[in-house]
Each structure stands twice: as structure tokens, then as C-alpha cells.
Write a structure and sequence with these properties.
4 helices; elongated; about 80 residues; mainly alpha; 2 domains; single chain
Length: about 80
């Protein structure tokens, strides 16, 4: 368990560093996937899509809506 936990966090941080998207909760998300309860393990890869991915999409939608209300602002400045 301790080896899988450390490898999950290290891999998540290495991928985020390589893509220049370092965000510490990403390491916590991978840690929860390893040490989480049986319910989380039963989700399998769906865990990455539903709570983590869906939450990120909802936050992006809110940010786009709120930050683009005034005509003087444009969010995001650019899309990669």
C-alpha cells in the first residue's frame, strides 16, 4: 500500500510537471484513488471521470460564465 501510494503521487506530480500544469490537489486525487475505500476502488477509472473530471468541468463552466459577463473581460486570454 505504501509503495502504490507513493508511486501514484509521484507519477501524478511528474506528469503535471511535464505538462506545466502543477496543481497539488492532483496528487491528492491520485492518493485517494489508491488508499480510498472499497466504493472508490469499485469505481475504477470512473473515479477519475466522475468526481475529479466532472468537478473540474463544472468549475470551468462557472469560471467561463462569470468572467465573461462584462464585455470588457475575456476569459481565458488564450486556449492552448
Amino acid at each position: 500500500m505504501w509503495l502504490a501510494s507513493s508511486l501514484a503521487v509521484a507519477t501524478a506530480i511528474a506528469v503535471m510537471h511535464a505538462t506545466k500544469t502543477l496543481h497539488p490537489p492532483g496528487g491528492a486525487t491520485s492518493l485517494i484513488a489508491v488508499i480510498g475505500s472499497q466504493k472508490i476502488h469499485n469505481l475504477g477509472y470512473l473515479y477519475a471521470l466522475m468526481p475529479a473530471g466532472l468537478g473540474a468541468l463544472i468549475m470551468l463552466a462557472v469560471a467561463l460564465l462569470v468572467n465573461n459577463i462584462p464585455r470588457s473581460r475575456r476569459y481565458p486570454d488564450f486556449w492552448v
